[in-house]
Structure formats: structure tokens, C-alpha cells
Specification:
Layout (H helix, E strand, L loop, with lengths): L3 H4 L19 H14 L43 E4 L4 E4 L10 E7 L6 E8 L8 E5 L19 E5 L2 E4 L2 E4 L15 E6 L5 E5 L2 E7 L7 E5 L4 E6 L5 H15 L3 H6 L21 E3 L4 E3 L11 E7 L6 E8 L8 E5 L19 E5 L2 E4 L2 E4 L14 E6 L5 E5 L2 E7 L7 E5 L4 E6 L43 E4 L4 E4 L10 E3 L8 E10 L8 E5 L19 E5 L2 E4 L2 E4 L14 E6 L5 E5 L2 E7 L9 E5 L4 E6 L4 E2 L2 H5 L29 E4 L4 E4 L7 E3 L9 E9 L8 E5 L29 E5 L2 E4 L2 E4 L14 E6 L4 E6 L2 E8 L6 E5 L4 E6 L28 H11 L3 E2 L14 E4 L4 E4 L7 E3 L8 E10 L8 E5 L19 E5 L2 E4 L2 E4 L14 E6 L5 E5 L2 E7 L7 E5 L4 E7 L19 H9 L17 H12 L14 E3 L2 H7 L4 E4 L4 E4 L5 E4 ...
Parallel strand pairs: 54-58, 76-78
Antiparallel strand pairs: 1-2, 2-13, 3-12, 4-9, 4-13, 5-6, 5-12, 6-7, 7-8, 9-10, 10-11, 14-15, 15-26, 16-25, 17-22, 17-26, 18-19, 18-25, 19-20, 20-21, 22-23, 23-24, 27-28, 28-39, 29-38, 30-35, 30-39, 30-40, 31-32, 31-38, 32-33, 33-34, 35-36, 36-37, 41-42, 42-53, 43-52, 44-49, 44-53, 45-46, ...
């Protein structure tokens, strides 16, 4: 029994009290009203009939139900928006061209509304093309005189509108969440009404349910107004005295109140709803329903990738799991199945091409994210649906608390959405690869636990363990409206992060103790908003805190850090604090602590940033507070939370955990040079510099030149606030002693400031400006150095790619300048407020040159001091690369088209051209080389293997279709480019990975400073990415042509450079050319780039046509080296090298093929020295045999067939002059023209062309030949010669004679007969 107060609804029709035998109402309507009143317990104001007596109709208590005359009936005014068409006696309004236009659909009532009069409309038609929908309200403007706007919210006066779920007054939001219903989510057939009460309050009604007071003060004369905006196309005014309108309205109310039960109670004779879940017959254009509604498919899945939406035949009950099994997939498309729920009834829904296009009442899981009304609300929610295969299952369930959960193969993925209304229909979108799915019954799924499961909120492997840590600090259960607490109170996140940016304040569950650190780690960010996390403390208890939009709105007892600003009670009290919260990214740790003195300290990644503010009330409890604002979405409490060491709790200076102040040990710690500005004094053995007077004359230099990737870093120790400006630092080619000894010395001395140092090239950063020789090069670089405080660290680094980087508090600000010279010193200017600094960096331990891996910027051939023993040492050291563990294998988590075999050491892409990402199971260790071999290529595709590293945990990473789609914590090598998070950061690095043939071995190595090196066939291509965060995992994407790779373990001894049969048995001469030209003569077995080089094969066939004795040439694999475009890029050869004494440049023979000759065994090793220069000599085919037989570079043109036989050692071909030989002629032979570049030596005037027919292809080609020789001074001495062959595909350069000093060509006497030649070349 219901109580008498509940048995009568608030708006029970007055016609029940009349003596007209219900003249204007049917009995069924009265019964329906009574049932609804009992169902709602009187809690809802359900208006099912005409207005009650006494409200707008007088208080006479008429015996009959009033029926308005046509003159009094509310209609739409004839004057309306430009696209509106009125019909049905002006009761219906429709927006024309709804698929082309979304606005200009404003209509108003024909007269003002009376007090307590209901103005109600029914939505007749919607389209799903636009976002936003109907808006309704009142306005004081008379429609006769109003110039109608495009949309009513543009009107800036006299207008109150409901839009979405909020209220706008004069176009500005006054109530953000007026009701739980949103107008954007209403369906066709729903009713919307409004009334102005006699007390001036405005109420809105949705399907008869009063949403409460929208505004308490409404002008007395207002017109009803409807804006047919966006999806809303057609509406009709509803009059309660119309029987048909009443029935439609009552059905809409029943549906809103109880989508399942109420309809059966109102119509008990209706057919019982089927228990079994089926697919509704109304489905997408390209979809079909079979097997009695249990199976949905796209019959032509290879022709179309969308229009495959199917819905359940009935609404889901609370806790009911809707689950489907993927029966069939196709590999033609990207993307796959999507699943979710919608409030739309499938019987009336105009199905879109894909469900994510629907802009109302829809929640979908797509890929590994969740979308609501077409907008992403969770980026990384759970298992990636795009990686599922045939046989996998996906499901969805709505719990009683309104949370939505998804299942993959029976495992819950956690909460995906909150406040999902009841009565939603399940929806499956057979998109892309998904071709067929079947509903699954009675499949066990893991129960949804009562506490919010982790799902996407799971703490990453780098985050604190939920069970670890001894601190009881957690997030309080009270928090902002958009915040969610999970993981046992250790994790906080902001849901709807792409549609909401605030209202996500979380606070600690208890007050902080003195010296206790509260530390969190940022786990997730979005790039949609400006601003980021804000953190601080408050003396307000969580129970007393009315959570505002953002914590900086609180005006008492609150201290917050926002960006770099310290704020107290909402007011900025200090700018330019030592850290910037807006600059932090995923993985950064933020801590806060109140000391016993009442100081507030912040910690970034464990480093104390110093006192942010002081004077926190010592006797008052303070709680840690975090505002998940803007870009910051999710944080977790770390294990570092808890009491800290007493020294840290009371210290006011920054700690030096990561950057210790090294003791001045000779050869280890950096020092300042004794040459410095006149106001500078050096202390503590040259590790501390103090400006004793003034504000200028504070230049200091590093003692030694900076090596590649070496950081010179100082800490600010003392500031003098009376001066303006900033510390300046950079790199200079000026040796510190060149301008005088400085203070107290003689000579010109140093300029007063760094911008005036222009005698030698100097690059510097001042404030946030980059200058070269005082000239402005760039503005707004990095953090402003004027913001440095005591304890701040600042450093400079010269990159291996000839760039200058500035580091502030350990954070690299990126390249400030490029083209930095090789020999540079660090230079600082103690200018303005910075009075003293101390060095906190140290040099790397002294190493032999050979132990340092070569880089693109290294110039190994220019060191004239090195002797032969140094070369040997360099050879051995160059390959001293750590060996990878034998247990290395690929992770089980990989792209869906990958099949692992050979103990997970071989990865094969078994389908399509993508979805082939694999990751090495162990993180990269410095100096350990990780290599894979390309086993198989499929030439039907383009592009090929992609190599790189990721710094996020790969075990739970949902891999995209290709590595280039990784948008965070990824550095990739693709083609010849270097990419970071999908953006190219470097071009033309190393060889083109797309041209690597089968058998090529590629590898990655981290050096001791964190630089990432690429290795190809054992050759280090240099630093691709400096300062890679650690730990990181090597990643390989089997993309395009690359279909199979295998992890390679180096053979024993590889670390010492003695690979079997390769560099271990190199002769000294091989080292000279092999190492100095960065050529790996002995690539791993079956991995030679020459294996598939057609150009090299053609050159070899031409050499065979010359019938030259094989004994002239070195045996394989040292016989030849190809310099065609593909081969030289694969090795990463530089265009020029330096050699000889003094060092001179020579060009590598790009476009030619070199065949190496044997060295005369009688030649003394001492003649093989790098003091000799490298040069080329153009020749012709007819003279090749004679030159080889005689060992003489001459201008003769005798035919090979006419050459006289010569004495020589058997099998060698070198002539030894006999004892009775005639003495040589007195006259000098004609000069031999040599050039350090084949651009000139290979000109047609010096190296004539000859035509020949390729015996394999029968095509005609032209060839040229040239010799490569070593020469010393004016005497050309040949220690080895090679014959090169180049096919003439480029424009020929005409040889121009020049003097020997210009480095192009020179004339030299012919070498002595009997001296071995160096190299032989041809070109076609």
C-alpha cells in the first residue's frame, strides 16, 4: 500500500474531481497516471495531463476540463528562422536542408506564455550528421520585431536557454549541470517542456519529469523559443487536450521512467519480452543478420569496411553481459570490431556508417580507447580490439551503479564510463577487419569486483606496487566531481579527460607529518588542454572542503604550485620557482613536504627544488592536495612517500643525488681554466668561480676541450639580486690562453661580457636567446636563464651531431645551435645576479681513441700523430662492444600478425604488411650490442624494417599497426630518418634501412652517455639519438618488405674485433683503408651487401672480360668493394676522408666499384704508413694489363695482347729487375696526373670510355678504369692499387688542370718499377 500522500501525484488531473464522468480523459489515462504515481512514490513531479485547476486557469474550480480555443492555443509564430518551414497549422516546425545546414532554425511562440502554462514540444525527427541538438527556452523579445539570429544562444539580452544539460542566460553559461538529462541525447518521440511559475521561477520538463528550478527570476512577459540546431530537424507543439498527443506523451514518460518494467505494467496484454539476446533485424546497409538473429556479418567484407552496425534486439538489464565471438576476419583493412552501448532504439534509429559517428547517447570501445558521442574519453583503456583474431570474444555490461565495463576473452578491462543511463542497447560495429560475429551465451567471464578495478588505471611497472611501501598515505574518498580514486586509494584519475579539464581535485587521507614526503608519479597525460598538474598543501580538512573547479580558487589556508608560480590563497606570491609543473611529462615524480620550520619544499624526480614558501602554520595540520588539471589525467602515489631523512627534512638547499659535487681529483673533475675575467677569482682547486666585484668581467672557461656528448655543468651558489640579467653560457673555439692571462695579467685580456667575445666563433645562450658571435640567431629557446635560483644547475653539451645543447636542472632543452666546430671549450659569463658557481660535472675517464665508438662526426683519418701501433690498437678497441646475453628473445606481447619461433628468437610476419612490431625482452644495457638479421624480404611491398627503442613498459603495451603510430616514448630509425613520437627529428642519417638486402645484420647500442648507436653489418653508423631515457627496450617493426628477422648472438671473441675470418686476420694495409673509410671488409656470413647488388655483379662481369689473372687480386671477401648508391648508404660512408701528413682530404669513389690487388710480400711493412696521401689516376682499358705487369703508371696505350711477357714471381705477377738489366734512360718519364677525387681523375679526357656487351643481359654499356694510389710529397709511391668500375649514369665532369695546391690534381714522376700498385677501378 502506498501512503495517501504518495497515492496522489502532485499534478493529478483536476478532471478526476469533476462531475463530467471524465469528459476529456479516458479511464486508461487515469489508471496510467495512478500507476506512475505509485511507481515513483511521489518523488517525481510527473505531469501527464492538462494544467491543474487554479494554475493559469483561474481558481473557480470549473466543473469541466478547460479546452483552449484556437485563438488561445500556443502555436509557432509565422516569423521564424530563414530555414524553417511551418506546417500543421503552425504546430510543426521543420528545418530545411538538414544535411547541409545546422543552424538558422529558430522558432518562437505566437504569444507570450502565461504563468503556470506548459509549453511542450515533441521531437519528430533527428539526423546524425551534426553534433549538438535542440535548444529550448524563453525570451523577452517580441518575434514581430526580432531579427532572428543563426542560433538563439547568440542573443545577448533577455534570453534564457537550456542547451545540453546546462542553462545559458544571454549566451553565457549560468548553470553547468542543471539536470541529469542532456538535450543532445534525446531521441525521436521525446518531449521537452517549460513553464514559468507564478513565483517567477522557470522550470524545464523532459518527458514530463520536472527538472527543477532553472532560474528563480524570470521576466513576467516571455515568449517560448525553440532552436532546431544540429541534429534536431523537426518538432511539434503538444497540446494536452489532444488525445493523440496525450497517448504519445504518456508512452514517452513510461519509456523514460522504466524502459523494461513500466511498459509491461502499463500494457499487460503486450507480448512478453524475449529473454534471449538477439541482433535486431534493423542493421547497417552492408550488414546481414543470420542464424535466427544470433549472427551478424558483412557479406562483402573485402569490398566495404563500414556500414556494419548491428544492435541488440532489446535493452540490456543491469549486470547482464552482452558478449560476441569474432567468427571471421579479413586482412584488407585497418581497424577492427567495435563494441558498446547506446540509448537509441534500433527500431527507430537511422544507422550511421560507423557507430562512432553518432553524436548522442553512445559509448563505444574502439581500438584500446573509449569514445562517448564520438569524442575520446579514455585513450589507453584496455586490450586493443584491433589486435583480436578469429575466435576471440568481446563483451559489455552496465552495472547497477551506472558504470560501464568491457570484457576481452572473458577478462574485465575495468570501468570505462560512469553515469550511463539504464535501458541501453548493446551495439556491435563490424568495422574494418571484423567480418562476422556471433552472440555467445553462458560464457564465463571474470566477475566485476566491487572496488573500481584497475583496467586502464593499472599502475605501470615503473609505478609503485599496490602492495609495497610502508606509508599509510592514500587519496581521500572525497574528491572533485570529475575525479575517480582506484587502486586502493593509491591512484587518482580524471575521467572524460578530453571533454573535461578541471573539477578533479584529490586530497590526502590524513594530514602530513613534519618531514614527511608525499610523492606522486604522473602516469597519463593528454595533449588537448593548456596547463597541467597543480600540487600543494591545504589546512582545510577534506570533510570541510567544498571542492571548487580548481584548487587555486580557494582563498584561505592553501599553498599551491602552478607552473612556476607559488600561490597562497589564490594569489601569486612568487614567480619563477625552480621547477615548472607544466613542463613535466609522463613518468615525472612530484613530491611535497613541510619541514619542522614551516617551510614547504617541492621535489622533482627526487631532487629538492628548495623552499617554495615559508610560514606555514606550525601547529596546524596540512593535507597534500593535487589538482588533476588540464593535460594531467592520472597520478599514483609512489613508494617514496613517507618520512624522509632528518637532514632532508630541515635542509633549505637542493640535494645532489643525481649530480654529486665531485672531489677535485686530477683527470676526473672538470675545472675552470686559469684564464678568466678580471673580476673572477677561482677557488677550491679551480672548481668554484666567484665574481668578486661589479656585474661584468665574469668570463670563465673549461680547462679542456669538450668531447662529443660531454656535459660541462655548474650549480648556482650565490645570487646578487641588485643586478638584472642572467648567467650566460655556451661554446667557443677560442683557446682560453689566447687573449691574455686575465685578472692581473698583461695582454689584451678578455672582454667584459660574453656577447662581446667575437675574436673566435662563439655560440652562447643568454636568458632565452641564442647568439653566435653576438648576433641573435634564435629567440624563446628553452627555459629562461633569468629564472635560475640558488641550487639550480645549468650545463652545456656538444652533441655528436655537431649541435649545442643547454641543460637546466638535468633537463635537456634541445639543440640550441647547429654546425658547432669540433674543437670547442665551454665558456660561462658570471653576469648580473649570478655571483658564484661551482662545477658539478666531471670528465669521462681517459680512453684510447679506439675504445670510443665512431660517430658520424668523428674524423678518424685526420689524426696525424697516431702511429701504426695506435692504428692496431684503435682497430681492436673500435669493436669492443659488449655482447648481448644468450637468453635474449622477443617478448610474447607483439603485433597480431607476428609468429614467434626458434625459442622466440625468430619473428615472422605471417599476414598483410603491418601489425608486425616485436620487442626484445630485456632492456638495453650500455655498451651491449643487440642485433637482428633480416632473413626474408617480400618484394611485393614497399618500405621495410623499422628499428628503434621505447621507454615505456612493453609487457602491457597495445601495439598499433605500425611503429610510426607510437606517439609517446618512442625513438625510431626508418629509411634514412630518425623519428621521435611520430615526428621526424633528423634526416639523412646512416644507410637507408629500406634498401637493406636479405642477410643484413642491424643492431642498436647505447653508449655510456645514453646515446643510441645504429650498427649495420658490424659498422657503427654513429649516434642517432642522444640522451635516450633508460630503461629502454629495442623494438623492431617487420613492416612492408621485411617479413622475418632473427636475433643474432655474436661469436666468441667478437668483442675484441676478431670475428671469424673477418677483421681478425686483416693485414695492416687493410686496416688503413678498411678502418679509415669506415668499411667493414668482413660482414657476417651471408650478410654482405654485395650479395644482391646488381651494379657490383655487372662490374665483376666486366672485369672477367678483361681476362686479368686472378692472382693479381685479393681473395674474397676482401677482393672488392662497391660504392654504388645503395651499398655506400648501407655502410653510411661519408663523402670525404682525411689522410697523410699533413692531413689532406680525398673523396671516396662514389659510383665506382673497387677491386683490391695483392700486396707484394717483399714490401716492407714500414712503407705502409698513413703519412702517405690518397689519390686517383685515370687510365684506359688497353693499359690495365701493362700497368699491372710492370707496376708502372704510364701513359702508354699498348693493347693487352701486345704486352711482352715479364719475369715475376709465380702467381704474383710483380717484376723483379735482373742483375744484367740495362740502366734506365736518363730522361724523365712523362708526368702522371693524380687527383684526390675521381670527379677529375675519372673525366673522359683522362679515363677514356670503352663499350662492352654484358654477357648476362646482352645489353651494351660503357666502362672506364682508374687506379687508386698512395703518394708521398712529389713522389708517387704505390703500396696497393685497386681497379674500380663505374657505370656512367651521371653527367661527366670535364677535367680542368690546376696547380697542385688546390687539391684537385697534380703531376708527379712515375713510380719506380717494381713498386706494388694500390688499387684498380672502373666506371661505366
Amino acid at each position: 500500500m502506498v501512503s495517501p500522500a504518495q497515492a496522489r501525484p502532485e499534478t493529478f488531473p483536476n478532471s478526476l474531481e469533476s462531475h463530467n464522468d471524465f469528459a476529456s480523459m479516458e479511464l486508461s489515462e487515469v489508471v496510467s497516471n495512478t500507476i506512475l504515481s505509485a511507481y515513483n512514490g511521489g518523488l517525481l513531479n510527473v505531469n501527464l495531463s492538462s494544467p491543474p485547476a487554479g494554475e493559469g486557469l483561474g481558481s473557480s474550480g470549473a466543473a469541466t476540463s478547460p479546452i483552449l480555443t484556437s485563438n488561445d492555443a500556443l502555436l509557432f509564430h509565422e516569423k521564424c528562422g530563414t530555414l524553417i518551414k511551418l506546417s500543421n497549422n503552425n504546430k510543426t516546425a521543420e528545418r530545411r536542408r538538414p544535411l547541409d545546414e545546422f543552424n538558422n532554425g529558430v522558432v518562437m511562440t505566437n504569444r507570450p506564455l502565461r504563468d503556470n502554462e506548459m509549453f511542450e514540444i515533441r521531437i519528430d525527427k533527428l539526423v546524425d550528421k551534426w553534433s549538438g541538438s535542440i535548444e529550448i527556452g524563453v525570451t523577452t523579445h517580441n518575434p514581430n520585431s526580432l531579427e532572428y539570429p543563426a542560433t538563439m544562444t547568440n542573443l545577448q539580452s533577455g534570453t534564457i536557454m537550456m542547451s545540453g544539460c546546462g542553462i545559458l542566460t544571454n549566451g553565457k553559461g549560468t548553470r553547468r549541470e542543471y539536470c541529469e538529462f542532456s538535450l543532445d541525447e534525446l531521441q525521436e518521440g521525446d518531449h521537452i517542456g517549460l513553464t514559468r511559475k507564478s513565483n517567477s521561477a522557470l522550470h524545464f520538463f523532459i518527458n514530463g519529469i520536472d527538472q527543477g528550478v532553472a532560474t528563480p527570476l524570470t521576466p513576467p512577459v516571455v515568449y517560448g523559443v525553440v532552436d532546431l540546431y544540429g541534429m534536431a530537424v523537426k518538432v511539434t507543439i503538444v497540446h494536452n487536450n489532444n488525445h493523440s498527443d496525450r497517448l504519445r506523451r504518456n508512452n514517452a514518460i513510461l519509456r523514460a521512467l522504466s524502459p523494461e518494467g513500466a511498459l509491461r505494467r502499463a500494457a499487460p496484454a503486450a507480448q512478453a519480452e524475449p529473454e534471449r539476446l538477439l541482433f535486431h533485424p534493423n542493421c547497417g546497409q552492408k550488414a546481414a543478420i543470420t542464424h535466427e538473429g544470433r549472427t551478424a556479418l558483412r557479406p562483402h567484407a573485402t569490398d566495404d569496411f563500414n556500414h556494419g552496425v548491428v544492435l541488440s534486439s532489446r535493452a540490456l538489464r543491469d549486470g547482464e553481459v552482452f558478449q560476441v565471438r569474432i567468427d571471421k576476419m579479413v586482412d584488407k583493412w585497418a581497424g577492427s570490431i567495435e563494441i558498446g552501448v547506446t540509448t537509441h532504439n534500433p527500431a527507430y534509429l537511422q544507422l550511421p556508417s560507423t557507430m562512432t559517428n553518432l553524436r548522442s547517447g553512445t559509448w563505444m570501445m574502439t581500438g584500446n580507447g573509449v569514445m562517448h558521442n564520438g569524442t575520446t574519453i579514455l585513450d589507453e583503456y584496455g586490450h586493443n580490439l584491433d589486435r583480436l583474431k578469429a575466435g576471440d570474444t568481446v563483451g559489455v555490461v552496465r552495472r547497477e551503479d551506472g558504470t560501464l565495463h568491457f570484457f576481452v576473452n572473458g577478462m574485465t578491462q575495468g570501468p570505462a564510463a560512469w553515469n550511463v543511463p539504464p535501458g541501453v542497447y548493446a551495439v556491435v560495429d563490424l568495422y574494418g577487419q571484423a567480418a562476422q560475429a556471433t552472440i555467445v551465451d553462458d560464457v564465463e567471464v571474470s566477475p566485476v569486483p566491487e572496488p573500481l578495478p584497475e583496467g586502464n588505471n593499472q599502475v605501470s611497472p615503473s609505478s609503485p606496487s599496490s602492495g609495497a611501501g610502508g606509508s599509510d598515505l592514500r587519496f581521500h574518498q572525497l574528491h572533485g566531481s570529475n575525479a575517480v580514486i582506484t587502486n586502493g586509494g593509491r591512484t587518482a584519475l580524471r575521467h572524460n579527460c578530453r571533454s573535461e579539464f578541471n573539477d578533479a581535485i584529490v586530497i590526502s587521507n590524513r594530514a602530513l607529518r613534519d618531514g614527511e614526503l608525499f610523492e606522486i608519479v604522473i602516469q597519463k597525460m593528454v595533449d588537448r588542454w593548456s596547463g597541467s598538474i597543480e600540487a600543494g598543501v591545504t589546512a582545510i580538512r577534506p570533510e570541510d572542503l567544498e571542492f571548487p573547479n580548481t584548487m587555486t580558487d580557494i582563498d584561505y589556508d592553501t599553498w599551491m604550485l602552478s607552473g612556476t608560480a607559488i600561490m597562497q590563497d589564490g594569489n601569486t606570491m612568487r614567480n619563477n620557482y625552480g621547477c615548472d609543473l607544466d613542463a613535466l611529462g609522463t613518468g615525472a615524480r612530484i613530491g611535497m613536504m613541510r619541514t619542522a620550520k614551516g617551510d614547504l619544499h617541492y621535489f622533482i624526480n627526487g631532487q629538492d627544488q628548495g623552499a617554495a614558501c615559508s610560514g606555514l602554520p606550525p601547529g596546524k595540520e596540512v593535507y597534500a592536495v593535487v589538482d588533476l588539471y588540464g593535460q594531467c589525467v592520472q597520478v599514483s602515489i609512489t613508494n617514496a612517500t613517507g618520512p624522509m631523512d632528518n637532514s632532508l627534512a630541515t635542509s633549505n638547499t637542493a640535494t645532489e643525488k643525481s649530480f654529486p659535487l665531485h672531489s677535485p681529483v686530477a683527470g676526473v673533475a672538470h675545472r675552470f681554466h686559469s684564464t678568466c675575467g678580471k673580476n673572477v677569482t677561482l677557488e677550491e682547486d679551480g672548481t668554484r668561480a666567484v665574481r668578486a666585484a661589479g656585474y661584468a668581467h665574469g668570463l670563465v672557461f673549461s680547462t679542456k676541450e669538450l668531447r662529443a656528448e660531454e656535459v660541462f655543468e655548474v650549480k648556482v651558489e650565490e645570487l646578487d639580486e641588485k643586478w638584472a640579467g642572467s648567467l650566460r653560457l655556451g661554446l667557443t673555439t677560442l683557446a682560453p690562453g689566447e687573449m691574455g692571462p686575465g685578472a692581473g695579467g698583461s695582454g689584451p685580456g678578455l672582454p667584459p661580457s660574453l656577447p662581446e667575445l667575437r675574436t673566435k666563433t662563439t655560440w652562447m645562450v643568454s636568458s632565452c636567446e641564442v647568439r653566435r658571435d653576438g648576433q641573435l640567431q634564435r629567440m624563446n629557446y628553452g627555459r629562461n636563464l633569468e629564472r635560475l635560483g640558488v641550487g639550480s644547475r645549468v650545463g652545456v653539451r656538444r652533441g655528436a651531431d655537431d649541435t649545442m645543447h643547454i641543460l637546466v636542472d638535468g633537463e635537456d632543452m634541445g639543440p640550441a645551435a647547429t654546425g658547432i666546430a669540433k674543437n670547442v671549450w665551454a665558456v660561462l659569463d658570471l653576469y648580473g645576479p649570478v655571483r658564484s658557481v661551482s662545477i658539478v660535472s666531471s670528465t669521462r675517464l681517459e680512453e684510447s681513441e679506439g675504445t670510443q665508438p665512431p660517430s658520424p662526426s668523428s674524423d678518424t683519418g685526420s689524426e696525424g700523430e697516431e702511429d701504426d701501433e695506435g692504428e692496431e690498437h684503435g682497430l681492436g678497441g673500435q669493436n669492443e662492444v659488449g655482447i648481448i646475453p644468450t637468453t635474449l628473445e622477443f617478448l610474447e606481447n607483439h603485433g597480431k600478425n607476428i609468429l614467434l619461433s626458434n625459442g622466440n628468437r625468430t619473428a615472422t610476419r605471417v599476414a598483410s604488411y603491418n601489425q608486425g612490431i616485436v620487442v626484445i625482452n630485456q632492456p638495453l644495457v650500455p655498451q651491449l650490442l643487440v642485433q637482428v638479421r633480416i632473413d626474408f624480404l617480400n618484394r611485393q611491398w614497399t618500405s621495410s624494417l623499422v628499428l628503434g627503442v621505447i621507454t615505456c613498459a612493453p609487457e602491457r603495451l597495445n601495439f598499433p599497426a605500425s611503429a610510426c603510430a607510437l606517439k609517446r616514448a618512442a625513438w625510431l630509425l626508418r629509411g634514412r630518418g630518425v623519428f621521435h613520437n611520430g615526428l621526424k627529428i633528423c634526416e639523412k642519417f646512416g644507410p637507408n634501412l629500406d634498401t637493406c638486402p636479405e642477410g643484413t645484420i642491424v643492431g642498436l647500442r647505447l653508449d655510456s652517455s645514453g646515446g643510441l648507436h645504429l650498427h649495420v653489418n658490424g659498422v657503427d653508423q654513429g649516434v642517432a639519438v642522444p640522451d635516450v631515457p633508460q630503461p629502454c627496450h629495442a623494438l623492431v617493426d617487420l613492416y612492408g618488405q621485411c617479413e622475418q628477422v632473427t636475433i643474432v648472438n655474436p661469436e666468441p671473441g667478437a668483442a675484441s674485433g676478431k670475428s671469424a675470418g673477418t677483421q681478425g686476420d686483416m693485414e695492416k694495409a687493410d686496416m688503413v683503408d678498411g678502418i679509415k673509410e669506415s668499411v667493414c671488409w668482413g660482414p657476417p656470413p651471408a650478410a654482405s651487401p654485395l650479395k644482391s647488388c646488381e651494379y657490383h655483379a655487372l662490374c665483376s662481369r666486366f672485369r672477367e672480360l678483361l681476362l686479368l689473372p686472378e692472382d693479381y687480386f685479393m681473395p674474397p671477401p676482401k677482393r672488392s668493394l662497391c660504392y654504388c648508391e645503395s651499398c655506400r648508404k648501407l655502410r653510411g660512408d661519408e663523402a670525404h676522408r682525411r689522410r697523410g701528413e699533413p692531413p689532406r682530404e680525398y673523396a671516396l669513389p662514389f659510383g665506382w666499384c673497387r677491386f683490391n690487388l695483392r700486396v707484394n710480400p717483399r714490401l716492407e711493412a714500414g712503407t705502409l704508413t698513413k703519412k702517405w696521401h690518397m689519390a686517383y689516376h685515370g687510365s684506359n682499358v688497353a693499359a690495365v694489363r701493362r700497368v699491372l705487369d710492370r707496376g708502372e703508371l704510364g701513359a702508354g696505350t699498348a693493347s693487352i695482347l701486345s704486352c711482352r711477357p715479364l719475369k715475376g714471381e709465380p702467381g704474383v705477377g710483380f717484376e723483379e729487375p735482373g742483375e744484367n738489366c740495362a740502366p734506365p734512360r736518363e730522361e724523365q718519364p712523362p708526368p702522371v696526373l693524380l687527383s684526390p677525387s675521381l670527379q677529375y681523375a675519372g673525366a673522359e679526357t683522362l679515363a677514356s670510355k670503352v663499350q662492352f656487351r654484358d654477357p648476362k643481359s646482352q645489353r651494351t654499356h660503357q666502362a672506364q678504369v682508374a687506379f687508386q694510389v698512395l703518394e708521398l710529397g712529389s713522389r708517387a709511391g704505390a703500396c696497393r692499387q685497386a681497379l674500380r668500375c663505374r657505370w656512367q649514369v651521371a653527367q661527366l665532369h670535364v677535367w680542368r688542370p690546376s696547380t697542385p695546391s688546390d687539391g684537385r690534381s697534380r703531376g708527379s714522376p712515375a713510380p719506380r718499377p717494381g713498386t706494388p700498385l694500390h688499387a684498380l677501378i672502373w666506371g661505366t
